[in-house]
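Can you give me the bound-state structure? Components:
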Amino acid sequence: MTKYVLYKNARLLDPASGLDIKGELLTKNSKIDALGKKVDAPDDAEILDLKGKCLCPGLIDMRVFVGIPGADYKDTILNTGEAAAAGGVTTVCVQPNSNPIIDCFPNIEYLTSRAKNALVKFIPMPAVTKQLEGKEMTDIGLMSKAGYKTFTDCSATIENAALMSRIFKYASAFDAQIVQHLSEPSLSRNGCMNAGELATRLGLPGIPTAAETIVLERDIRLLRSTNCRYHASQITCADSIEVVKNAKELGLKITAGVAVPHLALNEYAIEDYRTFTKLSPPLRSEEDRLAVIDALRKGIIDVIVSGHDPEDPESKRVPFEHAEAGVIGLETLLNVSLEMYHNGSLDLLDILSKLTCNPARIMGLDSGVLKVGAPADLCIFDLNVPYRIDPEKMVSVTKNTCFDGRPVQGRVIKTVVGGVSVYEYAS
Amino acid sequence: MSSDNAPFPHQHLLGIEGLNEFEIKQILDLADKYVEQNRRTNKKKDLLEGMTQINLFFENSTRTRMSFELAGKRLGADVINMSTSTSSIKKGETLIDTASTLNAMRPDLLVVRHDSSGAVKLLSRKVDCAVLNAGDGKHEHPTQALLDALTIRRRKGRLARLTVAICGDVTHSRVARSNIHLLNIMGARVRLIGPPTLIPTGAEKLGAEIYYNMEEGLKDCDIVMMLRLQTERMHGGYFPSVTEYFSLYGLDYDKLAVAKEDALIMHPGPMNRGVEIDAAVADDLTRSAIQEQVEMGVAVRMACLDLLTRTKRGVSN
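Here's the bound-state model for the whole set.
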C-alpha cells in the first residue's frame, strides 16, 4: 500500500540547494515525492500542518559511540537510536570501539543486524587497524567493496607513520576514506585538559594544541603522495585550521569536523573539576573556540558532530584525572548548534549544511537533502522556542551532558526516518 | 572584634585561591597565639572537646599527618588516622563511597590528602563536616602556604613588598601554587626560578616573574623558598641529571650570595640534600627557617581547625 504524507505550512530548508521557502513537502512511502510552494497531494495523503515550523533533512552525525562495556549491547543500540531520533538525527555513524570492536566484516553484520530495530539508520565506521591497536590494517579492501568506505580508529591516533603511509596508499585504491583522531600520544597520554594557565592553576596535566596539529601536519605530508580521502575528525584549535586550509588549497581530498562542545564551550567550563566537561580532544581556549566557529563560517570545517559518548556515572564520579573522557550529545546537536544562528555567527542554512548535506557527501549517502527521490529522512524543528537543557528529560540512559542547565533556543518537534515518524515532541 | 570569636566565612579550607587578605590575616593572627600556647609546658586546650577529626590520607605523609594530628589533639579533639595502606581504598572502594561512609560516622573535621588534583573538593561535596585540604595532587596545599607565611611574617614582620623566590620543581608542586596565590594576595612579589621544563605553562599569569637562571632570579630576594624535586611525579626527561640540576638550580652559598644578606631560606620538606639544596645551607641556623616552618605548621593547623569549627561550636556571634 502506498502511503503519502503531506507536510504543509513548512519553512523548507535545504542547505544543498540553498532552498529556504514557505512551502509543502510530500513523501511517498520512504522517499520524498514532491516539494515546493504548493504541491499536489493525492486525496488519501495524511496532512500535517507544521504551522510555519522548519523542515530540513534529517541530521547525519558522523561521530557516535554506542558501546558501554558490560551493558546490554542491543539495548544500548536501541537507546542510542531513541536519543538520535529525539535530537532530529536520522543517521548515526557508529564508531568501531564497541564490544565487539567493528574491525571485520562479520562484526559489521553483527552491528547492522542488531541495529535493525533501531529508530534511525546506523552506519558502521569500521576500524582502520585490527583491534584498534594501530599495528595491522583491517580488511579495508573487502569492507570497502561491501560499501563501508569510511574507516576510523575513533579515539586512537595511528601513531606509526610508516603504517599510516601504507594505509593511505592502500585505501586510495578502494576509494576508502580514513577518519583520524588528532592527538599525538606522547603529548597527550598523561594530559586531561588544555595546556595553559588554567591547567596550571588546577594542577592538572595539560594537552597542548600541538598534539593535534602535529598529527594533522604529518598526515597531510603523507597524503600528498597518495590520493586518499581523509577526514580530520575533530578540529579544536586555530593552528590546525590553518593546516586544513592549506591542504584544501593544495587540492588534497581532505575534510574536517568539529564537535558541538568545542563550538559552545571553552576550557573554563571545567570550573571546579567537572568531569562532564572532560573530552578528547579537550576543550580549548576562547581564542581557539572563536577560530573554530570562524572556520565553520569559511567552510574550512565541513561537519559538526555530537561526539555522543555515553559513560556510566561511575566512570565520571571520580577525580578529574581518572575520569573517562566523553559526553552525550545526540540530543544537543541541533539546539546547541543553533546558538550560532541566534547569535549571528552563521546563517541558518550554513549551520544545517554541516549537519546534513556535508556529512552525507563525505559519507557517500543519498540522504541529507530535500530532493525528489531522496530518502524521506526529515527533521522538523521550532527555531525559536527558548528553554533550558534538562538532563532528566533526555532519552539517553546516561546523563553525562556538558550542557546541563544551558539556555537554548530551538527544539526538535518531529523526526521522520524513511517516511515514518520516529519521534514526536510531547510538551 | 577579637580574633577569638570572629566568624570565618568558609565551610572548608580547600585552597588559598578564594581566600582574601583579611581571612589570611585572621588565620595568621590566631596561629601566632597558638605558637605561644605550643611553647608552654601544658600545650592542651579543650576547645574541640567531644569533636572528632579524621585524617584521611590517600597519599603517604608523615610530617603533615603528624602535624594535623598534634594540632587536633592539642585542641582536645579525638583524632583518628586513616591511610590507604590500611583502608578499603585498596579493596577498590571509590572516593565518593569512602566519603559517604566516613560521613555517616559523623566526624566534625576531615583532613584529606589525595594524589589527584580536585579530589579533596570532590569529596567535600559529599560530606557535611568541615574539610581541610592537606594537599591534592598538583593543585593546592593551603596549610603549607599559611605556615610559610606565618614563618615569614614572624621573621620579617610583614609579607607585603617582600621579594620571594620559589625555586625548583614548580610544575609538580602544589606548595608552589598555594604560595603563589597567598603571596600575591598579601602583596608580596613572587619569582619562580627553575629549568623551563619545571615551570608550568602560563605560570606568569598566576602572578609571578619567571627566571631560568638562578643567580638572576635570586638577586636581592628576601626569601628563598626551595621546592623538593618530585621525581615520583615525573614521566621521564625533565632534566638531564641530578648533577646538572644541583649545579644549576641547587641552593648553595655561592648562589645565595646574590640574595639579600639576611635572606631567609625555606623548604617544605622532606629535603633532598645535594639535589635541590646543599646540606650546609640547609643546616645553617642563622639563615634557614626550615625547622621553624615545622613548628609553625602545628600552630597554623590549630588555627584552621579552630576557625572551621566556630559556627558549629556556636562561638561565631
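A couple of observations. The longest strand of chain A covers residues 4-14. Chain A has two domains: 4-55+375-424, 58-363.
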